[in-house]
Amino acid sequence: EILLITASSVSINELNELVGKYDGVCYPAHIDRGSYSIISALGDFPVEVESRCFELTPGAKAERYLEEYPATKGRLILRGSDAHYLTGMREPEFMIDLNENSAAELINYLKGRHINE
């Protein structure tokens, strides 16, 4: 019903504010991909990205992105397959240790907060 592959009129700053209203977290996904990534769309990783983290696909060399895009330094690197089907999912190689198994704890972790503090 709504085509989701076109660019949004929402800016990076507006997106952070909007997601924050719902106590959510957003981060640039699969920045190493040649299409549908923040780098392929903007040509750089903007310093304005307020996220504590970004995502690379499992085979991407993190050192390359940390060196080539200075705004990525100091951020948590997530790894994800971006699988759209069960057959595209792999065995976990990268894991996050959480204090409890909940969406709230994951969001808090990605924001740098922890529920049990």
Textual characterization of the structure:
The protein is α+β, with helices and mostly antiparallel strands. 26% of the residues lie in helices and 7% in strands. The chain is built from 4 helices and 2 strands, in the order ααβαβα. It has a two-stranded parallel ribbon with strand order 1-2. Strand 1 (53-56), helix 3 and strand 2 (76-79) form a beta-alpha-beta unit. The termini are far apart.
Calculate the mean pLDDT score and round it.
Answer: 87
**Helix content bin:** 25-40%
Strand content: 5-15%
Beta strand count: 2
Computed Rg:
15 Å
Count of helix runs: 4
What is the spatial order of strands in the main beta sheet? 1-2
Q: Profile the largest sheet.
A: 2 strands, parallel
* Strand/helix succession: HHEHEH
Measured distance between first and last alpha carbons: 43 Å
Q: What is the global morphology?
A: globular
Quaternary structure = single chain
Structural class: alpha+beta
Poorly predicted spans: none
Task: Provide the descriptors you would attach to this structure in a database record.
117 residues; two-stranded parallel ribbon; 4 helices
Secondary structure: elements and pairs:
Layout: H1 12-21, H2 38-42, E1 53-56, H3 62-68, E2 76-79, H4 103-111
Please provide a brief summary of the model.
The chain is of the alpha+beta class. It has 4 helices and 2 strands.
